[in-house]
């Protein structure tokens, strides 16, 4: 029978074992490419793969659990790792951070009266209901049951958020209903974070997260374990080999030689998990958001992370340098080819469709006296349009949108009067109403991604759409229609694309003929802001502010023959052209917010 013990070393089936791991997020790769990433991980010289399991990916809507649809089958990913003789580290904690929308917490918790990441019984009820679905799926894959999973995480960097020991004890209780392999915590490797995030259960061991000052951080971790009489291997659970990126900021890069030296230092001191091995893509609307002071800084669609494999899976100089460390100068027995890339050119523009003229066709419609937030409308992500009749012809001197997130475009009779973003929301506008009666005010509100780390997890701005109301003069205006955009309706034939060009937000349909599928990059230069649907799959957001001017399109999302691509663009500056590239395209960021 398989065994794993946590002593000064990991003792797996009686042998001292150093874990050499890389992070691969199955939810950020198309499932056809999971095996490719795992093959590359073996070539690097790793014996382990690590992944988070995001709660909001598997229970997006309350009570609707999905572990088997496209991209969601964690069992397949684990089995593919086992087929390559890789150990697996799973991090199924309720919160994952990971620069992922709301840190992996499902949006519908914002409708509940509960304190997240705490011992609040209401929150724990939702966690236990989810774990009672997830953990029985994972149980047969434990090392003790003959599977590849050797470790699981209790909570993620909890020491940088709270020190509610009852909460940690309760998560442990729920996990132990199903899990008998070792459980760990991971925190920043300084004493305050390690103390706050430590589990009161003595068989839970700590690990550190860092990417530099290796000896200093490992010594901090060792001192903490000595202080508390903990015997466990020294492990960096997240060795940061790059960093994530945000809109309107330059791409962050790390010197490969400097990284190689830091990894070698860690490799000689203990076990490590490279975060990330391959970052992948924040498909759809699942990018997270950084909080800096009063600002929310939303992350881009690409989660390339400057990792050892690029977003699209190519090896980098980092891969080759660290491979030398892990293989100790030996050559890998196998070399996998990078994915083939093509610049497709057989593109036909079908036509455009205005958002304002097609709202009922692409939305779920709700009428209410006062504006409702996104969560109150049971909508998690994307866009909401608010519309109301604001009366007869006149000059309106003061109009304010009160408490809205994250970006509001304001139209009067379908003419744009302002775009407000973050700090501008709430500032006063004035405009003329030209029609004798029934002048229409329309607001397009975009959820650009919820905060994934820190105290702002509890902030009111995590609730999207309009939370307050819209003031005309000194009164709140009433009687609103809400249009929650449904991207399934957009791609299922509801729209008629019979316009050549439109002003304002709208949809642009293209047909792309593909003889042989291959990876490609959509060239987003000259576009404003929005997202792209490929055969109904939401590739993610584009935005003219950069730093990326592309969307990565993996080959498995294409099919031989005709492919439907719909661009949703909100700024009214679309070029009516869909161009492809064999390489990613970057935009020089001229200013920072």
List keywords for this structure.
B-gal_1-like, beta-galactosidase activity, Jelly Rolls, 3 domains, TIM Barrel, 8-stranded parallel beta barrel, Glyco_hydro_35_CS, 593 residues, globular
What's this entry about, in short?
With 593 residues, the protein is α+β, with helices and mostly antiparallel strands. It contains 10 helices and 31 strands. The mean pLDDT is 96.
Describe the structure.
With 593 residues, the protein is an alpha+beta fold. It has three domains: 308 residues, Alpha-Beta Barrel (TIM Barrel), CATH 3.20.20; 123 residues, Jelly Rolls; 89 residues, Sandwich (Jelly Rolls). The chain is built from ten helices and 31 strands. The strands form seven sheets. The protein has an eight-stranded parallel beta barrel with strand order 4-5-6-7-8-9-10-11, surrounded by six helices. A six-stranded antiparallel sheet has the order 15-24-16-21-18-19. Strands 14-25-30-27-28 form a five-stranded antiparallel sheet, with no helix packed on it. It is globular, with a radius of gyration of 25 Å. Its EC number is 3.2.1.23. Belongs to the glycosyl hydrolase 35 family. It holds the Pfam family BetaGal_gal-bd. Keywords: Glycosidase, Hydrolase. It catalyses: Hydrolysis of terminal non-reducing beta-D-galactose residues in beta-D-galactosides.
């Amino acid at each position: 029978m398989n065994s794993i013990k946590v002593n000064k070393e990991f003792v797996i089936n009686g042998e001292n074992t150093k874990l050499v791991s890389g992070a691969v997020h199955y939810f950020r790769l198309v499932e056809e490419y999971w095996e490719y990433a795992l093959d590359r991980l073996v070539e690097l010289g790793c014996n382990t793969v690590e992944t988070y399991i995001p709660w909001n990916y598997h229970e997006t809507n309350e009570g609707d659990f999905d572990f088997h649809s496209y991209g969601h089958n964690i069992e397949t990913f684990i089995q593919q790792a086992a087929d390559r003789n890789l150990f697996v580290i799973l991090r199924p904690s309720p919160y994952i951070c990971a620069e992922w929308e709301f840190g992996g917490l499902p949006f519908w918790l914002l409708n509940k009266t509960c304190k997240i990441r705490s011992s609040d019984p209401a929150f724990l009820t939702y966690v236990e209901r989810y774990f009672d679905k997830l953990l029985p799926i994972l149980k047969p894959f434990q090392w003790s049951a003959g599977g590849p999973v050797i470790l699981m995480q209790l909570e993620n960097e909890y020491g940088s958020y709270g020190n509610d020991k009852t909460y940690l004890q309760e998560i442990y209780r729920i996990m132990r209903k199903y899990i008998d392999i070792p459980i760990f915590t991971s925190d920043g490797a300084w004493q305050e974070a390690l103390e706050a995030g430590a589990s009161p259960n003595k068989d839970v061991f700590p690990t550190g997260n860092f990417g530099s000052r290796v000896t200093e951080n490992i010594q901090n971790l060792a001192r903490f374990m000595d202080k508390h009489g903990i015997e466990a291997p020294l492990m960096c659970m997240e060795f940061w080999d790059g960093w994530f990126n945000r809109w309107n900021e330059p791409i962050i890069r790390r010197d490969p030689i400097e990284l190689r030296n830091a990894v070698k230092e860690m490799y000689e001191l203990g076990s490590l998990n490279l975060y990330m091995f391959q970052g992948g893509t924040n498909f759809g609307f699942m990018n997270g958001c950084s909080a800096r002071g009063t600002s929310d800084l939303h992350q881009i669609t690409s989660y390339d992370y400057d990792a050892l494999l690029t977003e699209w899976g190519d090896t980098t100089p980092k891969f080759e340098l660290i491979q030398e460390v892990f293989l100790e100068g030996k050559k890998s027995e196998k070399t996998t080819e990078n994915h083939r890339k093509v610049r497709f050119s057989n593109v036909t523009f079908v036509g455009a469709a205005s958002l304002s003229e097609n709202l009922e066709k692409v939305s779920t419609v709700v009428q209410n006296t006062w504006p409702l937030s996104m969560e109150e409308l049971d909508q998690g992500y994307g866009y909401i349009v608010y519309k109301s009749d604001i009366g007869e012809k006149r000059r309106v001197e003061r109009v304010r949108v009160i408490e809205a997130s994250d970006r509001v475009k304001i139209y009067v009779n379908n003419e744009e009067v302002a775009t407000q973003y973050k700090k501008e929301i709430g500032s006063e506008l004035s405009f003329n109403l030209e029609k004798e009666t029934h002048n229409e005010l329309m607001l397009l509100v975009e959820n650009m991604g919820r905060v994934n780390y820190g105290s702002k997890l509890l902030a009111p701005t995590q609730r999207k759409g309009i939370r307050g109301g819209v003031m005309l003069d000194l009164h709140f205006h009433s009687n609103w229609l809400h249009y929650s955009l449904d991207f399934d309706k957009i791609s299922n034939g509801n729209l008629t694309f019979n316009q050549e060009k439109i002003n304002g937000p709208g949809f642009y349909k293209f047909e792309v003929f593909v003889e042989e599928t291959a990876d490609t990059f959509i060239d987003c230069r000259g576009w404003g802001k929005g997202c792209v649907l490929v055969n109904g799959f939401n590739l993610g957001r584009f935005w003219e502010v950069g730093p990326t001017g592309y969307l990565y399109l993996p080959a498995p999302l294409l099919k031989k023959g005709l492919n439907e691509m719909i661009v949703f663009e909100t700024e009214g500056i679309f070029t009516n052209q869909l161009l492809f590239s064999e390489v990613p395209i970057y935009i020089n960021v001229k200013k920072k917010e």
